Amino acid sequence: MAWNETKLTATGRIITDVKTRTLPDGTLYADFTLAANERRYDPDTKEWVAGKSLYLRVKCYRKLAEKVAATLTVRDPVMVTGRVYTDKYETDSGPRSDLTLDAKCIGPDLSLCDVVIERKPSLLEPAA
């Protein structure tokens, strides 16, 4: 943990394919884009209307990257938590920036989907 880290938890839907690669040091890496779209009920029109949107590039490493790539896909509702920052970089068309979340935890949003958890036997045994 670093001084003055900004932690964020966001809920939304995955809007890009989960991309994976292996870094030069052998670490597995995965990333995707998360869209958190606000919806609110308008009592005057009696309809749900779109509000503000937040787009985050979510990245993860090692075992989390492996499990994200194996289980999640476009349109899946998820909750992510981790360290958020602005990632600045150069392209042929000039400087760019992305809001990036370095995820420590990613899971399905159970208010919007059903899941079956596959528990490992070692997690079910009481500690000695």
What is this structure, in a nutshell?
The chain contains 2 helices and 6 strands; from the N terminus they run E-E-E-E-H-E-E-H.
Report the CATH topology name: OB fold (Dihydrolipoamide Acetyltransferase, E2P)
CATH architecture group name: Beta Barrel
Summed over residues and divided by their number, the pLDDT gives a mean of: 93
DSSP, total strands? 6
Unreliable spans are: none
Question: Which of globular, elongated, flat, extended, rod-shaped describes the shape?
Answer: globular
Work out the helix count. 2
The radius of gyration is: 18 Å
Oligomer category: single chain
Output the structural class.
mainly beta
Give me the strand/helix succession: EEEEHEEH
Keywords: DNA-binding
InterPro entries: NA-bd_OB-fold (IPR012340), Primosome_PriB/ssb (IPR000424)
GO molecular function, one term: single-stranded DNA binding
Organism: Actinocrispum wychmicini
Written description of the protein model:
The protein has one domain: OB fold (Dihydrolipoamide Acetyltransferase, E2P). It is 11% helix and 56% strand. It is built from two helices and six strands. It has helices at residues 62-71, 121-124, and strands spanning 7-14, 19-22, 28-42, 47-61, 77-91, 94-108. It has a five-stranded mixed barrel with strand order 1-3-4-6-5. The longest helix has 10 residues, at 62-71.
Topology, pairings included?
Blueprint: E1 7-14, E2 19-22, E3 28-42, E4 47-61, H1 62-71, E5 77-91, E6 94-108, H2 121-124
Parallel strand pairs: 4-6
Antiparallel strand pairs: 1-3, 1-5, 2-3, 3-4, 5-6
Question: What are the salient characteristics of this protein?
Answer:
OB fold (Dihydrolipoamide Acetyltransferase, E2P), single chain, DNA-binding, globular, Single-strand DNA-binding protein, 128 residues, Primosome_PriB/ssb
